[in-house]
Write a structure and sequence with these properties.
169 residues, mainly alpha, 70% helix
């Protein structure tokens, strides 16, 4: 492996350097999919486009975790804090298929910002606390241990948000 390859891998795993944040790198990494989703909604992208972009983001971040996460664990230790591709994937999963309101519908901007904020906070809470059985997923080998708990937190957060938004609708 050469230095350019190492830099490229580090860039992927740290979500363009967000994982190198001196404060709360996982939180910094989780912001990326939220900004992408809100940006797409605000420019008028339809639900299908938003969901497709988030799915692609989740898949690419997941592939990075599994494909090169093993090397990162060898260099930086088990589930290193600077690796935030897992947070990107998990947060993207949380945001997929949420009921984004189309612009210029009255109240759409505030509703979408509230939904994105709730998705962000709920995912981060679950990813940090790792309630059972989420925490046990970190024991999986190689890059799977980095990724699985974040994806599971994303699925749980998405489920709670989906049920909550339907109850409030």
């Amino acid at each position: 492996m050469n230095r350019a390859s190492d830099r490229w891998r580090a860039t992927l795993l740290t979500a363009g350097g967000l994982g190198r944040s001196p404060v709360a790198p996982g939180t910094a990494g989780s912001i990326l999919p939220v900004v992408v989703a809100i940006g797409l909604v605000l420019i008028g992208a339809g639900q299908g486009v938003v969901d497709l972009v988030l799915i692609v983001l989740a898949v690419l971040a997941s592939i990075a975790c599994v494909a090169i996460g093993r090397d990162a664990e060898g260099a930086w230790g088990k589930d290193p804090g600077c690796v935030v591709a897992d947070e990107v994937a998990g947060q993207a999963v949380t945001l997929v298929l949420l009921p984004w309101r189309a612009l210029p519908e009255h109240g759409a901007i505030s509703s979408n910002l509230l939904l994105a904020g709730a998705a962000f906070l709920l995912f981060r809470l679950l990813d940090v606390i790792k309630p059972p059985p989420l925490g046990s997923l970190q024991r999986l080998p190689h890059g799977w241990g980095i990724l699985a708990d974040a994806l599971a937190a994303g699925v749980v957060a998405w489920s709670l948000l989906t049920v909550g938004s339907r109850l409030l609708a």
